[in-house]
């Protein structure tokens, strides 16, 4: 069984929010396991165990603990959005009604192409990353879906011309 199969079906709060246990410090073996799984989420338990010099049972238990503690939020593929038919990408900033974050977040999560949502500080309240097939679809998303949300006071759209996935990995010292 690989690490992805092991995590399948776990109902962790992906935001690390309510119900999540208090964070436990990670030791060197935990950080090594995380680096391996960040590089290859399909690595087998056997391969992980051999590479960090622990038994398969120990690697399995540690990965389960990392999943249960919400450190590992899931396993996914890195997608080339343009090749997947999502050629238009944009960051959209939103100003929202005070104290409406949870309501707005629920509505943003249902938007087609929404890839990342963050509550931020500064001149705007929310940063939303979307991927759409083309600029026409992006325009419709902003004008008909986003601006129709009553709690959204204003939006600003920043087109993405090119992007580079830095794919940062956890380092040995945890930074």
Provide a descriptive summary of the structure in words:
- There is one protein chain.
- This protein is an alpha+beta fold and 175 residues long.
- 34% of the residues lie in helices and 18% in strands.
- It has helices spanning 3-7, 28-39, 45-52, 56-68, 101-109, 135-146, and strands at 88-96, 114-119, 126-132, 152-160.
- It has a four-stranded antiparallel β-sheet with strand order 2-3-1-4.
- A hairpin with a 6-residue loop joins strand 2 (114-119) and strand 3 (126-132).
- It is elongated and about 55 Å long.
Task: Note the main attributes of this structure.
about 35% helix; alpha+beta; about 180 residues
Question: Could you provide a short overview of the structure?
Answer:
Helices cover 34% and strands 18% of the residues. The protein is of the alpha+beta class and 175 residues long.
Strand order of the largest sheet: 2-3-1-4
Q: What structural class results from the helix and strand content? A: alpha+beta
Low confidence ranges: 7-16
Gap between N and C termini: 29 Å
Shape label: elongated
Task: Report the biggest beta sheet as strand number plus sense, adding barrel if it closes.
Answer: 4 strands, antiparallel
Share of residues in helices: 25-40%
> What's the mean pLDDT score?
86
What's the order of the H and E elements? HHHHEHEEHE
Query: Nearest-angstrom radius of gyration?
Result: 19 Å
Could you tell me the strand content as a percent range?
15-25%
Number of helices: 6
Q: What's the β-strand tally?
A: 4
């Amino acid at each position: 069984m690989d690490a992805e199969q092991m995590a399948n079906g776990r109902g962790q709060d992906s935001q690390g929010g309510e119900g999540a246990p208090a964070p436990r410090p990670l030791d060197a073996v935990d950080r090594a396991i995380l680096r391996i799984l960040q590089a290859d989420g399909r690595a087998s338990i056997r391969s992980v165990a051999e590479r960090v010099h622990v038994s398969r049972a120990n690697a399995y238990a540690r990965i389960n603990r990392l999943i249960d503690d919400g450190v590992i939020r899931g396993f996914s593929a890195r997608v080339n959005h343009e090749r997947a038919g999502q050629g238009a990408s944009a960051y959209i900033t939103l100003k929202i009604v005070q104290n409406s974050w949870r309501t707005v977040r629920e509505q943003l999560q249902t938007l087609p192409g929404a890839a990342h949502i963050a509550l931020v500080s500064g001149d705007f309240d929310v940063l939303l990353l979307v991927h759409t097939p083309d600029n026409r679809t992006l325009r419709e998303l902003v004008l008909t879906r986003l601006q129709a949300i009553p709690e959204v006071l204003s939006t600003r759209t920043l087109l993405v011309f090119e992007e580079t996935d830095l794919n940062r990995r956890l380092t040995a010292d945890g930074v």
